[in-house]
Amino acid sequence: MPRYGFLGLGIMGSAMAANLVRAGFGVTVWNRTPEKCAPLVALGAKQAATPRDAAAHSEITFAMLADPAAARQVCFGPYGVLQGLDEGRGYVDVSTVDDATARDVGAAVRECGGRFLDAPVSGTKKPAEDGALVFLASGDRRLFDEAAPALDAMGKKSFYLGETPGQGTRMKLVINSIMGSMLTALCEGLSLGLKGGLEGSDMLEVLASGAVANPMFSIKGAMMLRDEFPASFPLRHMQKDMHLALGLGNDLGQAMPCAAAAGEAFKKARAGGLADEDFSALFRLFR
Amino acid sequence: MPRYGFLGLGIMGSAMAANLVRAGFGVTVWNRTPEKCAPLVALGAKQAATPRDAAAHSEITFAMLADPAAARQVCFGPYGVLQGLDEGRGYVDVSTVDDATARDVGAAVRECGGRFLDAPVSGTKKPAEDGALVFLASGDRRLFDEAAPALDAMGKKSFYLGETPGQGTRMKLVINSIMGSMLTALCEGLSLGLKGGLEGSDMLEVLASGAVANPMFSIKGAMMLRDEFPASFPLRHMQKDMHLALGLGNDLGQAMPCAAAAGEAFKKARAGGLADEDFSALFRLFR
Amino acid sequence: MPRYGFLGLGIMGSAMAANLVRAGFGVTVWNRTPEKCAPLVALGAKQAATPRDAAAHSEITFAMLADPAAARQVCFGPYGVLQGLDEGRGYVDVSTVDDATARDVGAAVRECGGRFLDAPVSGTKKPAEDGALVFLASGDRRLFDEAAPALDAMGKKSFYLGETPGQGTRMKLVINSIMGSMLTALCEGLSLGLKGGLEGSDMLEVLASGAVANPMFSIKGAMMLRDEFPASFPLRHMQKDMHLALGLGNDLGQAMPCAAAAGEAFKKARAGGLADEDFSALFRLFR
Amino acid sequence: MPRYGFLGLGIMGSAMAANLVRAGFGVTVWNRTPEKCAPLVALGAKQAATPRDAAAHSEITFAMLADPAAARQVCFGPYGVLQGLDEGRGYVDVSTVDDATARDVGAAVRECGGRFLDAPVSGTKKPAEDGALVFLASGDRRLFDEAAPALDAMGKKSFYLGETPGQGTRMKLVINSIMGSMLTALCEGLSLGLKGGLEGSDMLEVLASGAVANPMFSIKGAMMLRDEFPASFPLRHMQKDMHLALGLGNDLGQAMPCAAAAGEAFKKARAGGLADEDFSALFRLFR
């Protein structure tokens, strides 16, 4: 039975690591603030003092970190992953970072003799808890196959998107840029309708019976109407993803006017005190 | 068995009127260019020479017209609906018009002793053909109930949104403004991914397995990848709806930055020769 | 010496009519709330009870009204201008209205035997007081020439833009859409710099020494830094002009993404309690 | 008489270095493609083989480079500026880079015992040739004073914006984000007016007689009407500056919807073959 490392125990990481433990795998966890390891240890995980140690004791180490800076720090920093990855060990970054970070980390891992996948996830807190995430992976094909038991424990589906690290990240940014624009469109539409005397519940029901019916509108729409935004996917992360997606558009020469408008709305919401609410709290900016 | 009138036999109207005929109702049709009546007459409909005549021979007359100007012309113009609506007859405008047009037509119909519903539809060509439209109705409650057999023949669901004519129209504009922004977001995301080396089919599959999965992305996304845009919902109509929704935002004091950005994209596409293509042809502006 | 009528005594109209009186012309004024006529009467103007009366006693009547609805009301309504315009009298609408209003009013005036110019002004309160407005006129060429003494008393320059009424209005909307986008850009830039630790006065000085130096930035920028926005050009009017310009873009097939983004900002500001402040109060939305 | 180094001889750098030579200073130039040094050498400059050599032979070295990557390479790379900056020498980066680059370069220079200013310029080709640039400097105050003779030879005005390197860069990004939005607004307005039957020259004349009159509109507007865009400030650079300004907005939590919309337009124009035209060629996207 393979042994896994897991770095980063925020909302997503905690739920994912717990699913690995519950599936019976040996798991070594690490988090920047070590207190967050306690619930996992209580479930049966071991705790490592550094990313290096976690990587050195695992066949494959997963990382779920907040942003590109954290991803680089955990990899390249002192006592970082690179120092623990000897020949053949695998490192799978499931964070959402930018293109360049995925490629830089991938290159460094390969130079150390390690193997790398970037495999950001589509899905938020609930799918993480339910083991229903979708992994968007690119990089070492054999590592993808070997990681399958772990990915299956944490997710419902895994896509392999090619040998080049960064393709998984690009897919994630494509998906999340669409998601961010859609959420903004929902805020605008619901708010317009409420000002025009329509019932919120009627709007959600009509949306759910037509061609644009989707789970996010039902779930987030209901949160908007209740004005309650417990963080499943914090707004600051969605704002970051919009920024990264627009940066990718800059690199590739793709104009994205709708995502740009949505991105500015998320920026304003983040600066306006909604950073740690669920990203659906963007609604407060509009209504 | 009630007798129905049907005015306006474009893509949508032809399919809807055909469903009325097939359901066994007596139907009198009218169209500005009379040639378009032939297929309906072949099915068993009668043909009227003017909107007035159609209305005068029907208990309830439906109208599916291109824009507010056409809706006003058919109602107020010479040989218009108003001249045929004596006491108690019903007029149901299922076109997507603006707020003010719905209210003006409604007021005029009531003054003539008629009864009025504005009941724009959610759904495009295929649902129209399949009798699977969604009606968004407001106005006379009794007329809504009496029209139920006809609405059921043409649609799968009908919402009654209150006594004030125009609420159905507002709901439609809310839905379509969201739809227009979503379609734009899909164009941006797919185009970004293609430039970044992702497979189009992979993107659609990932979208279909997550929280934003919706029928429109599957159907329109596939059209985008094939670069074929047979008009199910012509781009010029979506552009008009975005414009009307932003106008409603102007009236109600609702900022809609994402819809505004999408609206300008549709405007550019309309001016750039894509007016009569399906609205998903917006993709050509981005890729 | 010709006798002039002047309809509409808001911020702009009062100042303009006063300049006509001070230049020695006979002036008959009218305003919807008659109290506003008092200062003009004190200067030597006569007061009319209705637009009709003002028009009937004047060779040329000017109108400075709040929006298209008011412009139509004063022209077509009971005791309106049309009823006072017998053969050869001139009517010059210096309001900013939409294209269609300018054309409709122009056609009706000509049918009555009158002559028409639409001649919206570029300039706000201070230039109105100083007789330094710019007139953007189209319509009857002879009327333009005959009105020259009055236009010269109120403005520093007059443009004649062709025979078709509405061209003056179009020019005004072009100018104001640019102005609205520029003001928004200034808000964004100043606010960005302040958050980044730059001095507001340094930013204005740098702006004033480069290629984009313009009077508006100096005047409105200083108001922004003082956070004082006495209305020279009320925000609600600028919002209206952005909306009209975008509507013209809709008619002519011109995409205007920057104006659309600015327009949504003005919409939000108007709805957020800034409608009657100077349009530079938009800054409060950004800082 | 001090000896100056000058690194980077593009459109701007060539003109600036030439003004230093013509003012009688000893100047050592370097450029990545060495051929571009020839005209300067012909004027009397010396040519260095590397940035290090240029810096080592100069009291103060100026750099005018294309983007942050180039600025970092010339400073930190092999044979870079850092290797030539012994005790007390000055390095003045007049490129437009991002905040972080200005701070990183500044810190590295100080660690080497050198002194640093970031002093990006406001102004394009013509002002560069005429010695009429505006310098936006921050960093070492004494270096600013000592560099005055050189700055005066190249510019008409210099602002000192504080001890923290990066403030000059921030000011530049504020100015250029405003400029980019303004240029976009001009494109939209002129194009709208042309479609509406107005004369281009009339529009420029009206703009020049009102509150938004500014040199850029006159110069760039005339280029747009002629459809000739010889590069004074290449579009790719303006696109980069918009991107950097929006990135600064991201860092500081400042929403900039108008700049975001303009930025996407420049992105589309860059990808559409206009990268090396003057930035006013954006007009081609709109008309």
Whole-angstrom Rg of chain A: 19 Å
How much strand content do the residues of chain A show? 5-15%
Uncertain segments of chain A? none
Shape of chain A: globular
Multimeric organization: homotetramer
Summarize the helix and strand pattern of chain A as letters: EHEHEHEHEHEEHEHHEHHHHHH
The level of helicity of chain A is 40-55%
Tell me what you see in this structure.
By secondary structure, chain A is an alpha/beta fold. The first copy, chain A, has helices at 11-22, 38-43, 51-56, 68-76, 99-111, 125-129, 141-146, 148-154, 167-195, 200-208, 215-226, 235-252, 257-274, 283-286, and strands at 3-7, 26-30, 46-47, 60-63, 90-93, 115-118, 121-122, 133-139, 155-160. In chain A, strands 1, 2, 3, 4, 5, 6, 7, 8 and 9 form a 9-stranded mixed sheet that branches. In chain A, strand 2 (26-30), helix 2 (38-43) and strand 3 (46-47) form a beta-alpha-beta unit. Chain A is globular. The first copy, chain A, starts with a strand and ends with a helix. In chain A, 63% of the residues are buried. The model of chain A has no long low-confidence stretch (mean pLDDT 95).
List the helices and strands and how they pair.
4 copies of one chain form a homotetramer.
Chain A: E1 3-7, H1 11-22, E2 26-30, H2 38-43, E3 46-47, H3 51-56, E4 60-63, H4 68-76, E5 90-93, H5 99-111, E6 115-118, E7 121-122, H6 125-129, E8 133-139, H7 141-146, H8 148-154, E9 155-160, H9 167-195, H10 200-208, H11 215-226, H12 235-252, H13 257-274, H14 283-286
Helix pairs in contact in A: 9-11, 9-12, 9-13, 10-11, 12-13
Key features of this structure:
alpha/beta, 287 residues, nine-stranded mixed beta sheet, 54% helix, 9 strands, globular, homotetramer
